[in-house]
């Protein structure tokens, strides 16, 4: 008798004390609350959350959220007693309380991301996909209503070897200054960009995007593997690939817009665990973690003086206009 397929539940914290964290659960029931026995345990001082606030229960290949709290649980802004969850749903634990984005993916992928480092397996022939998919649209709030990817009932096949970054990598030595305008052909030839089976998981806002094959491109164009709606990005802004045991990033703009740890890069350069990656100084920004994971970093905007309303029109020059909070911001913090 076939075992049910392994499914990993991912909860991406988008508001609250664990904002930016991604938690993974493989059990058929996930308990949530302040009690020490809960799988997802919130701090004791958040008294609006009950000690045993809610449960996520797997039934077949679907997941149901069951509320057992005093102050309520909400899915996409609607208070629920029970609710079937789909990928991208945003769960509020009490009104105005912590928020998480609900995602699932096949278990073998999650295990591969967390597995020990293994040798990179370059592709010996072009990667063949039986059915070409249309270009994906940039991330937007409408994705929250999209249905989850189909989950197969057959037993998953053994995954191919997955590349992992080497721990404690030595710093990449640059033969040219960071701000040099000389051609980079020689530097780039040391790190050939070839199709490689390697995991990459990127969290941007409430969306979690997983890749098993590198390289990928990032930009505003819908032709990119990871299209992002951001005014500071170019159509084809960056490329992430795996070469010589490291994840590496390449600036496709030719304008040295990408920075790592506040230093402009002479691309391509290695991404090491703990690095802070800025695609531009205005964002988006990410922290790179072990296992090929990137989590968005929120860039703090300059504060506007409280007495700006009392300034004369000429005195307000240089201060950003305070924009009204969009519906997206109201929901996702």
Describe the protein.
The strands form 4 sheets. The chain has a 7-stranded mixed sheet, with helices on one face. A 6-stranded antiparallel sheet has the order 2-1-11-10-7-8. A 5-stranded mixed sheet has the order 4-3-5-6-9, with no helix packed on it. The chain has helices spanning 107-114, 185-189, 327-332, and strands at residues 7-15, 22-25, 29-33, 40-41, 54-59, 62-67, 73-75, 78-80, 82-85, 90-93, 99-106, 196-204, 207-214, 216-219, 226-227, 238-243, 246-251, 259-260, 263-264, 269-271, 276-278, 285-289, 293-297. Residues 109-187 and 322-328 have low confidence and may be disordered. With 333 residues, it is mainly β. It starts with 6 loop residues before the first strand and ends with a helix. It is 6% helix and 33% strand.
Features:
333 residues; mainly beta; 23 strands; globular
What amount of the residues lies in strands? 25-35%
- Cα distance, first to last residue? 46 Å
Which sheet architecture does the biggest sheet show? Answer: 7 strands, mixed
Dominant shape = globular
Oligomeric composition of the shown chains: single chain
Question: Which residue ranges are poorly predicted, with pLDDT under 50 across at least 5 consecutive positions?
Answer: 109-187, 322-328
| Whole-angstrom Rg | 22 Å
The overall pLDDT average reads: 75
Number of helices: 3
Q: How many strands appear in the DSSP assignment?
A: 23
The arrangement of helices and strands along the chain is EEEEEEEEEEEHHEEEEEEEEEEEEH
SS content category: mainly beta
Q: Percent range for helical residues? A: under 10%
Strand order of the largest sheet: 13-12-23-22-21-18-19
């Amino acid at each position: 008798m076939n075992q049910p397929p392994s499914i990993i539940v991912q909860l991406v914290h988008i508001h609250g004390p664990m904002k930016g964290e991604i938690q993974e659960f493989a059990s058929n029931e996930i308990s949530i609350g302040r009690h020490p026995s809960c799988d997802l345990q919130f701090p004791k001082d958040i008294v609006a959350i009950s000690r045993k606030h809610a449960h996520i229960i797997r039934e077949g290949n679907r997941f149901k959220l069951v509320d057992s709290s005093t102050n309520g649980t909400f899915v996409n802004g609607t208070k629920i007693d029970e609710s079937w969850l789909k990928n991208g749903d945003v769960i509020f634990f009490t009104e105005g309380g912590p928020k998480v984005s609900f995602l699932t993916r096949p278990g073998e992928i999650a295990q591969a991301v967390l597995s020990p480092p293994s040798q990179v397996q370059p592709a010996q022939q072009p990667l063949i996909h039986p059915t070409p998919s249309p270009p994906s649209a940039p991330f937007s709030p409408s994705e929250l209503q999209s249905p989850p990817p189909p989950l197969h009932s057959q037993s998953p096949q053994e995954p191919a070897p997955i590349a992992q970054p080497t721990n404690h990598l030595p710093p990449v030595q640059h033969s040219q200054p960071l701000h040099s305008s000389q051609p980079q052909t020689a530097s780039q030839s040391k790190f050939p960009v070839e199709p490689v089976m390697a995991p990459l998981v990127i969290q941007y806002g409430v969306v979690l995007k997983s890749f098993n094959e590198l390289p990928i491109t990032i930009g505003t164009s819908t032709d990119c593997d990871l299209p992002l709606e951001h005014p500071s990005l170019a159509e084809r802004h960056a490329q992430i690939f795996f070469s010589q045991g490291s994840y590496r990033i390449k600036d496709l703009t030719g304008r040295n817009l990408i920075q790592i740890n506040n230093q402009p890069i002479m691309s391509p350069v290695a991404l090491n665990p703990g690095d802070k990656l800025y695609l531009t100084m205005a964002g988006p920004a990410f922290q790179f973690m072990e296992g090929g994971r990137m989590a968005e970093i929120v860039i703090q905007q300059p504060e506007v003086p409280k007495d700006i309303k009392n300034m004369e029109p000429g005195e307000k020059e240089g201060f950003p206009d305070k924009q009204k909070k969009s519906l997206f911001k109201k929901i996702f913090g």
